[in-house]
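Re: [ENG-882] Designed sequences occasionally contain unexpected residues at chain ends

Forwarding the minimal case from QA. Structure tokens:
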């Protein structure tokens, strides 16, 4: 291949070729800008961020180190003035390109995954690190045990599932890490270790019995291969002295010989590059209004074979094709905490489209009314896009207005954020980590009301009703899509000045779209007590046995609501424990965690009060002190997971603290002085005694055995403590929401 000195204007596709091959190292140097060719390789505006999961990254690197092909990559020509961004995982730099470039149209995820172990990129750009465990064989025939660590999981993931480590493993990993460090690192939470600029090396992946130097960075191995100029003995000698004293690492010669061969194969790999014809890739590609843009259509089809684009990604790509600067504008909008706290950048665009359509209808535009749709399909989106987006300088184009830096929609987001935010003490507002759990359809309904009622005093006067309605929606709405459509219709037709919470509540619960309508009615605490008729002396019940056998529709709705509260909506704990959550995570959430819901990335855990290892382990590992053939033991065997995973046995706990406790019994933590008021542990005078019986310490266990010992007294206390706490938590939820019910 030719470099920048070449006179070829079509590099790398010379002589009008549409397909070419490039050695993998050369391609990655091109991608990272470490070798300057005539045309830069950039990401077109249509592309999204890095979305691959740990397993996908590890599997790709397993293929690379086996010397397997990884499929073709599709490129398009980018003209001067088009918007594109550099290839990075951490932060993209988006700008108008100054000369012709090549755009990576399909292959971004694979390329970014390869950069994680690439020696041609500055490691400060990464939030991931790839390792090879020298002391372990690869899993399921893989030649190497490849491990991944990330900023939020600095000790890696489980092998081979690639799910996050158990709490006890995270605890052990951190304890070992702290033994090797000193100073400020010991005081830092896990998620800050990855970026610490100290002499100590970053955290290694966790494996029981492993030592820190069992793991070597893939990046370092590849650099060593390049440094030793393909000399196998020199490659071996480079590492031999470093690992010679570690007796647990046997057959180092063989392992490094295999690694040398793997990188030799990797350096010989060729990546097929395919150039997309300009009549497809050009932003000016003409298409009728009722047909999708050809580039969008291509993106949709090639995505089916990889990390396919969501419908929302496809729709946003249509906007970026017509207005490339929209990507940078939306990124700037999404940087605002008032937007990022609720939704992704793509969801913001979808919300802007829906609200722009509502505004266009409200303006009595001479065109036909645009049907409201919380999740528009590509055809509808494409049909109305020109009318809502228009061109630069055109007036009356609300979608374009809503994507500009400061606009009425971002102002509405700011008002909504301030309105919902928890304000301390007994306030019913939402802590920041709860906000992304609210549905997009609800947020759009609230934004529409605020945009119709922008006066700040009006918004503040309706705060109680809006917060209560938001909590109701989160737990009770059954059909999100149609509920949002119905609520949007009601908001649009309501009188100005008052949020129609009661009208919304009545219309949503009265709808008859299916057996439960659009929303489940709130259930009073008295009604719950009458239905449960809880007998604390009874043996464990499954979730279906909690209620008496009744078949009328109102009871079925109440049953579904309480089952949803107990097992289907555990993030409601973020609101129930809002004082604790606000204290622990508000500042951190604003800086790094706003808008996140994935349990691998958030700084908190939904922790079991009576540890799961004590009741949910392999049945053979649970100690029984009475006849396992008894009805009580059969009930325990069958129903323990329903009780153990009920919201009454869960609380929110900061992840590093949770990891430090491991599987210690609740009583041990209470005896050590841990303060549990923020966990809403006690709801009546006898609750403390029940919890200590349900989760006994080794020292106070009834039979003097381990805390996995179960007898009938403990079973009864376990069930009673959990279900009584669940009822107490529901009471707090009902008290906050009941103001939206008709008198």
């Amino acid at each position: 291949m030719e470099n920048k000195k070449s006179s070829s204007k079509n590099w790398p596709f010379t002589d009008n070729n549409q397909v070419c091959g490039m050695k993998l190292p050369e391609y990655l140097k091109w991608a990272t800008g470490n070798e300057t060719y005539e045309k830069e390789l950039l990401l077109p505006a249509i592309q999204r961020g890095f979305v691959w999961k740990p397993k996908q990254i590890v599997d790709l690197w397993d293929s690379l180190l086996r010397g397997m092909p990884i499929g073709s990559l599709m490129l398009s020509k980018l003209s001067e003035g088009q918007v594109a961004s550099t290839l990075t995982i951490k932060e993209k730099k988006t700008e108008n390109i100054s000369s012709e470039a090549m755009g990576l149209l399909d292959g971004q995820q694979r390329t970014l995954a390869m950069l994680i172990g690439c020696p041609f990129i500055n490691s400060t750009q990464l939030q991931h690190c790839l390792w090879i465990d020298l002391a372990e064989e690869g899993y399921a025939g893989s030649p190497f045990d490849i491990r991944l660590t990330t900023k939020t999981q600095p000790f890696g993931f489980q092998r081979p599932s690639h799910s996050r480590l158990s709490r006890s493993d995270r605890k052990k990993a951190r304890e070992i890490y702290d033994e090797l460090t000193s100073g400020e690192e010991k005081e830092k939470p896990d998620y800050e270790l990855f970026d610490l600029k100290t002499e100590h090396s970053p955290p290694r992946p966790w494996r029981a019995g492993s030592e820190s130097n069992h793991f070597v960075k893939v990046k370092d191995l590849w650099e060593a291969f390049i440094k030793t100029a393909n000399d196998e003995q020199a490659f071996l000698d480079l590492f031999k002295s470093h690992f010679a004293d570690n007796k647990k690492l046997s057959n180092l010669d063989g392992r490094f010989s295999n690694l040398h061969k793997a990188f030799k194969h990797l350096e010989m790999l060729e990546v097929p590059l395919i150039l997309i014809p300009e009549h497809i890739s050009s932003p000016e590609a003409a298409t009728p209004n009722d047909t999708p843009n050809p580039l969008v259509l291509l993106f949709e089809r090639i995505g089916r074979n990889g990390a396919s684009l969501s419908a929302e990604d496809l729709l946003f790509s249509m906007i970026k094709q017509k207005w490339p600067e929209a990507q940078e504008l939306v990124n700037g909008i999404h940087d605002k905490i008032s937007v990022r706290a609720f939704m992704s950048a793509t969801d913001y665009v979808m919300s802007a489209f829906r609200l722009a359509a509502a505004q266009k209808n409200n303006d009595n535009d001479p065109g036909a009314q645009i049907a409201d749709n919380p999740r528009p399909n590509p055809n509808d989106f494409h049909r109305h896009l020109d009318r809502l987006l228009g061109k630069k300088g055109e007036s009356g184009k609300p979608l374009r207005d809503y994507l500009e830096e400061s606009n009425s929609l971002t102002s509405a987001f700011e008002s909504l954020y301030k309105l919902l935010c928890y304000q301390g003490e007994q306030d019913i507002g939402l802590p920041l980590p709860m906000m992304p759990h609210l549905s997009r359809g609800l947020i759009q309904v609230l934004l529409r009301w605020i945009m119709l009622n922008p006066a700040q005093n009006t918004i503040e006067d309706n705060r109680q009703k809006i917060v209560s309605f938001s909590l109701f929606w989160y737990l009770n709405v059954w059909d999100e899509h149609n509920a949002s459509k119905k609520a949007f219709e009601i908001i649009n037709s309501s009188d100005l000045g008052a949020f129609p919470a009661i009208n919304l509540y009545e219309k949503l619960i009265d709808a008859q779209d299916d057996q439960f309508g659009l929303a489940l009615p709130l259930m009073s605490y008295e009604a719950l007590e009458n239905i449960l008729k809880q007998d604390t002396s009874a043996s464990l019940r499954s979730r279906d046995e909690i209620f008496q056998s009744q078949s009328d529709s109102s009871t079925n709705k109440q049953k579904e609501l309480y089952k949803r509260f107990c097992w289907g909506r555990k993030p409601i704990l973020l609101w129930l424990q809002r004082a604790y959550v606000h204290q622990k995570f508000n500042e951190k959430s604003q800086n790094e965690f706003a808008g996140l819901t994935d349990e691998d990335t958030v700084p908190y855990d939904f922790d079991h009060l009576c540890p799961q290892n004590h009741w949910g382990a392999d049945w053979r590992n649970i100690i029984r002190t009475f006849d396992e053939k008894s009805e009580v033991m059969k009930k325990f065997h069958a129903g323990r997971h329903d009780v153990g995973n009920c919201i009454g046995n869960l609380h929110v706990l900061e992840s590093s603290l949770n990891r430090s406790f491991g599987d210690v019994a609740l009583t041990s933590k209470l005896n050590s002085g841990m303060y549990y008021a923020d966990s809403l542990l006690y709801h009546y005078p006898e609750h403390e005694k029940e919890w200590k019986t349900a989760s006994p310490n080794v020292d106070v266990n009834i039979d003097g055995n381990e805390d996995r010992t179960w007898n009938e007294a403990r079973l009864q206390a376990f069930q009673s403590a959990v279900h009584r706490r669940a009822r107490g938590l529901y009471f707090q939820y009902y008290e906050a929401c009941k103001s939206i019910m008709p008198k």
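QA comment: On inspection the terminal residues look reasonable. Residues 1-10, 700-705 have pLDDT under 50 and may be disordered. Proposing we downgrade this to a documentation issue.
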